[in-house]
From TrEMBL:
PANTHER family per record: ARSENATE REDUCTASE (PTHR43428:SF1)
Swiss-Prot/TrEMBL keywords: Arsenical resistance
InterPro entries: Ptyr_pPase, Ptyr_pPase_sf
Organism annotation: Methylomonas paludis
SMART domains in the record: LMWPc (SM00226)
A Pfam family reported for this protein in Swiss-Prot or TrEMBL: LMWPc
Residue ranges of domain Phosphotyrosine protein phosphatase I in the record: 1-135
GO biological processes: response to arsenic-containing substance
Protein name: Arsenate reductase ArsC
Domain of life, source organism: Bacteria
Amino acid sequence: MNVLFLCTGNSCRSLMGEAIFNHLAPEGWHALSAGSKPLGRLNSGAVAILAEKGISTAGYYSKSWNDLPLTPDIVISVCGNAANETCPAYLGPVLRSHWGVEDPAHAEGTAAEIKAAFETAYGIVRYRIEQFLALPLEELQHDRARLKAELDRIGPLLP
């Protein structure tokens, strides 16, 4: 099963989703990320927090959803609401869920406050992915309605 983490810029939260998911996923499950208006670069704060957690971003890059090498089975949008973001809506025959996470790339303040925003976003994304991967995936991949309900249940969960 292929899971797409989707956001507008594909530089921070969707990158975190892709990297964390691939770091933790069982065989046969794979994540990728994309954006509707990719920035063309990865956010240095996101790359740094992932590296600090021992999660590689080698080979990852900011890309458009028009450049995906495959059609995903599941699309998880990760746009937040604080900055009045318009979250892209992936069209197509996929299972969709929304896991809003506020964008740490817009954090302001001291270096410690900005790092804390990245830690918070990382923690939320990781926790939700851990909840996803704790589901009975073999069973749910054949029950789309139940899988969607479980993914939608996970969306608001915070660690």
